[in-house]
Fold this protein.
Amino acid sequence: MLTVSDIRDFIRLFDESTVHELSLETGEIKLSLKKAGATVVHESASTHAVFTPALHAEPPMESVTVKDVVEPQDLTNTTVIRSPMVGTFYRASSPQAKPYVEIGARVTPTSVVCIVEAMKLMNEIEADIAGEIIEILVENGQLVEYGQPLFRVNVK
Amino acid sequence: MSDRLDRHKIEEHIGIENTAISFYLEDEVTSTNDRVFALCQQEEQANFVALCAEFQQQGRGRRGRTWFSRKGEGLMLSVGLTFSDEQAAVMQDWPFLTALAVRRALLWYLDLDVAIKWPNDLLVDGKKIAGILIERRAKYPNRLILGIGMNVLTRKEEFEPDLQSRVTSLIELVKRPIDRSALAGEVIAAIYRTYVDVLQGQRFHDLYDEFIASCETIGKRVTVHVGEHRHEGVVTKIDREGTLFLQKENGESVTLISGEIVMQIDQ
């Protein structure tokens, strides 16, 4: 059974993909995602998630609603900062130091947002875009892959 | 036991005719890496900027751990290297190349054979004598700053009690006077020679055999800390890119490009 968390993950993956439309049906849940193609911003796009419970849902659905899934993540005008390399993600230059950015921070393209470390080589990562950090997508100390989204940025 | 670093002695061992090296000696800095970064900004044309300091207020080890060294006892130096866009790919080799260069300097100058713990700690008998921290700052993506900290004259009893089983110093190993200035010059010269070799096309995989011969990590049962995660297993291989392969007890194989080996049970 899909959980709210699963659905969030689907939306995030869909949002970061080049796929424009996705339908998924499992058990009593039917999930349809469609991007509004005309308003694509950088890698991301405005995403409309349509969450349609099947008509004959038995047993009763969890109280998952469109509101639950979409409202905390209005992805209009957002994009992501991706990791340019594989390595360990660190939010600060040292455990004692303040993180480079917090949610709500305004960044410019040259703002350092994190460090990705590989083989004890500390690589400072820049935002490469101007905007406001609205979500931090990985945990401090987490291994990140090439191209993995690290931060979500409101570019409006 | 301590002495003061002597500029002329350091330059003599670097090779004073070597005008390609911009060398600085300072008494006290916040961190040698930060200072070299600032010097690189001042010296836009310099390709090789080296700095030694008697004392750094905020010496960092991996992930911000303090690199402790009393004035006059350790060696703290940083080197800023510049690469062209075409050479950018070689930058990832430097964690290993730096370890090999420092190892060569110690072998050459002190006849001391040190082991490398992946990726680039330098050890003797399982105890750390030198650490390396490399930074690539966003403002100058074609530069690397190599930070090296070495325990030279500190006596065993002077280390913090909880460190005594894990660290050692050169003086404890070679048991004869060591001139820190000469050693600093030799280390900088060894890094410079490596830098020149790299500019002429040498890569880590060309030195792979030398690295493996001096690497004490292979075949060991280890715990590797990767961020918040831990992996336990036996190191089966380090490949020519420097990737570490760990075989867990459940048979699962893990490849690591980041992490710190914190325990070696079989030592």
Observations:
- Residues 87 and 199 of chain B are 8 Å apart (CA to CA).
- The longest strand of chain B covers residues 127-136.
